[in-house]
Amino acid sequence: MLRQVIYCGRPQAESAMPISSWAVISITEPGCPDGQARLQPGWHSVLRLEFHDLDANSPEWDIAAGQFVFMNEQHAHEVIEFVDRVAGEVDTILVHCRAGISRSAAVAKFVANRFGLEFDHGYPLFNKHVFQTLEQAARKR
After folding, report:
1. How far apart are CA 102 and CA 21, in angstroms?
2. Cα gap 54→70, rounded to integer Å
């Protein structure tokens, strides 16, 4: 049964020893020269997503439109389906992105809210667009 969600950067996720009772949500940038995160085998399950770290409320949004991949409803449904599927089978979900500050924090905040888990709700650096997209997708279900 899911007891915690944590988030970190890609280097920490790649160097982490796998725990069979943990699931991972791995977020990388599309076209990243390093490719997908090199996670060690042995995790309960892994969801891999690719989208850039941009917020719809940022000034870069209009400039970036068409050049970047934003978190969208399809990504959100993948997260929700994955988390709902593994929640009864794992005790922890580890979410990582490149730096472990924005995208991963937004997904972790969503998971914490969805399952009543502990989270620092005063943390201001989570990606608002990612979080809102997840919340909107969850309301549609």
Report:
1. 25
2. 7
Q: What is the pLDDT of residue 56?
A: 67
User: Which token pair is 64?
Assistant: 């970036």
Which fold would CATH assign to domain 4-140?
Protein-Tyrosine Phosphatase; Chain A (3.90.190)
Q: Please check whether residue 129 is in contact with residue 69, taking contact to mean a CB–CB distance below 8 angstroms.
A: no
pTM above the 0.85 mark?
yes
- Express each pLDDT in 66-84 by its tens digit: 677 889 999 999 999 999 9
**Burial class for 96, CB neighbours closer than 10 Å (0-12, 13-18, 19+):** buried
Predicted confidence at residue 32, as pLDDT, reads 81
Residue 60 CB: number of other CB atoms within 10 A?
Answer: 12
